[in-house]
Write a structure and sequence with these properties.
Layout lengths: L1 E2 L2 E2 L2 H4 L4 E11 L5 E17 H11 L5 E4 L2 E4 L5 E4 L2 E4 L5 E3 L2 E12 L1
Antiparallel strand pairs: 1-2, 1-6, 3-4, 4-10, 5-8, 6-7, 8-10, 9-10
């Protein structure tokens, strides 16, 4: 997986996080068919993440910014297929606490994926 030309380390990709990518369900049309948003949102949650992986996201990927827009991304879609996208906004992860070289209860959101 990658954002821009930067590959997401396998320690994050395979690091025990729960990966959910979905798009908003906006309602139904007059025929009862689903109306969905244009963009997907990826919510990646980690009970525990190494401080080095957390630092990589914040420093290497985001350059200490609150969010960064990428014009290319390769992420797994909701069927588990590696898919190329033309837009994705990576946000600074939220977390509950740091302890012993780890950060706990980390949530990383990448949205506006299309």
């Amino acid at each position: 997986m990658h954002l821009g030309g930067t590959t997401i380390p396998t320690s994050i990709e395979n690091g025990g996080g729960a990966y959910l990518i979905d798009r908003a369900r906006l309602g139904k049309n007059g025929d009862g068919e689903a109306i969905v948003g244009t963009y997907y949102t990826l919510t990646w949650t980690f009970p525990q993440m190494s401080l080095s992986d957390f630092t990589w996201i914040c420093s290497t990927l985001l350059g200490d910014a609150a969010s960064v827009t990428y014009t290319s991304a390769q992420l797994f879609n909701r069927l588990g297929v590696l898919t190329t996208y033309t837009n994705a906004v990576a946000h600074e992860p939220t977390w509950a606490r740091a302890k012993g070289g780890y950060v706990e209860d980390v949530t990383w959101i990448i949205d506006r994926i299309r």
